[in-house]
Amino acid sequence: MWSEGKIEEGKDSLRYIDSRQLYINHMDPFESVISIYQRQLCNTDTGSASALGATLCLWHDRNVAREEDVMIMNPAYPAMLTFAERTWKGGGSPGILVHISPEIKTGFAAFEKRLTEHKKRYFQQLPFTYFPRAIWNGSCTALSLTTATRHRNSIPPAPVLL
Predict the structure, then answer these.
(1) Distance (Å, whole) CA 80 – CA 6
(2) 139 versus 99: which is more confidently predicted?
(3) Which of 10, 48, 116, 130 has the most CB atoms around it within 10 Å of its CB?
C-alpha cells in the first residue's frame, strides 16, 4: 500500500502490506521513533484478512565508505524496536505525527524507558541513533544536540550555543 485511504474489507478484497512513509533512510533520527510510535498501520487499529501488516525499509541511497556507516546515518535499531512495538500492539493515529502531544506523553515516556533499556542491554556496542525526547517537552536545544553528538563515537563534541 503506497497511498492513503482505507481499503474496504470483503470476500474479494485486496490483501496488502503497508509501506507508506516507513523508509527510515528518509527519516530524521529524532523523528523516526515518534513517527513510528504513533503510526496507524494500514489505516486500521488491528490487522485483518486484508490488512496483513507493514514493512519497515532501509534503502540507503548514498555510497558509504564502510557498511557500518549505513547504521550510523540511519535510525535503524531504534526504528526497528519501535516498529516491533507498534505492529504488536496495533492502534496508533492516522497520518504522520512527529511531535509528542499531551495525549501520548505518558505512554510515550514509558515506551522510551523500555527503548533505552533495550539500548543499554542489547545495543551498547552498536550505533543506536536515538536519545529520549519525552523529557525535552517537544523542544530540541543546542545542549540536547551536544549531548547526542558526544554519544556518537565518529563525531566530535559540538560547542554549546545558547
Answers:
(1) 25
(2) 99
(3) 130
Contact 159, 104 (CB under 8 A): no
pLDDT digits (tens, 9 = 90+) for 31-51: 899 999 999 998 888 888 888
Q: Model's pTM, two decimal places?
A: 0.76
Q: Is the separation of the CB atoms in 7 and 50 below 8 Å?
A: yes
Residues 8-41 as b or e (16 or more Cβ within 10 Å = b)? eeeeeeeeeebeeebebeebebbebbbbbbbbbb
Tell me the H-state helices in 9-158. 29-38, 67-73, 76-89, 105-122, 142-150
Q: Please report, to the nearest 10 degrees, the dihedral formed by the alpha carbons of residues 56, 29, 79, 18 taken in order.
A: -30
| Residue 73 burial (CB count, 10 A) | 16
- Tell me which residue of 106, 108, 50, 100 sits closest to 82, measured CA to CA: 108
Q: What local confidence, expressed as pLDDT, does residue 134 receive?
A: 66
